[in-house]
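Researcher: First entry.
Model:
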Amino acid sequence: MPKPAGTIEVFLPPGELYFGDRYTRIRTLLGSCVSLVLWHPNKHLGGMSHFMLPTRRRGKATETLDGRYGDEALELLLDEIRRSRTRPQDYSLRLFGGGNMFPGVGHGDGHIGAQNIRAAKRLILAHGLQCQAEHVGGVGHRNLIFDVWSGRVAIKHSPPASGALRASSK
């Protein structure tokens, strides 16, 4: 499906999310961060999150939701869905990211990318949603492009540059 005239392109930085209509393309670059991508196939609405951490330590009850945290990012996306007068269960959901950016450093699957993946999967289940596809884990970063008009997500998974992420011997 060709890109509609008047399409806006949004680059999604870490900690942000975006929800748009059929005239929207959302791009992001993920390392250990995770993106939840939701798309309504009939209404051509969709959104993407780019969260950095599973959750935050709770402080004051008056804190506003923050897209840097997985649990809050999903709540913000669900708020956007409700504002559009659609139902979350009518969206396809896909999960991306959670790469290990520092292989050989740390302890196996305890790296932040793995923690983010586990948190996202728990959140998806807790909200009664189903994940239709995922491209998670591994080593390196991912470039994502989400075309809301078609629901297509293009992904390019690149390993870290050779030797660029070696632990310092100092």
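Researcher: Second entry.
Model:
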Amino acid sequence: MSTESSAWEERIAAAWATIDRYGDTEAAGEEFRALIDTVVAGLPADSPVGPFERASAFDSTGHSDRAVPLYQEALRRGLTGYRGRRAKIQLASSLRNLGRPEEGVALLEPELTAPSDDLDDAVRACLALCLSSLGRDREGLALVLEALAPHLPRYQRSMGNYARALVQPG
């Protein structure tokens, strides 16, 4: 269970709900990040959630380089659970954007066997991108097909078999 109050969670959710109102300019990004900083200021100084939310704001406004150390700090401080898994996905994506996809692979491969939740497909999609950046397209495609198969109205079994055939010898 999160140590943050439901009122704080509502404030951060409300702040994130406004992101599309901001434009794509650097000034708009700064304004949105200031909003997130204001909400994060309501957390204890050592909370792992603060750096995660700030990292997410930098990431969402085009600053993967500034997001990476904040995601890492959040994880070092013990961010776990749903936000912890989101941090790993988002950190892996940012690392890939910065030309460090091998670090993203190392971060996400253990998530393939983590307890299942609604982020499973996001793990696979991001890992597939990292693998592709490393020239491992067949492995990436297999992950995407595995993620897609359960959502298809038909052909789930076939797509699962095709995905396995992409990465299994013979």
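Model: Note on the second entry: The radius of gyration is 18 Å.
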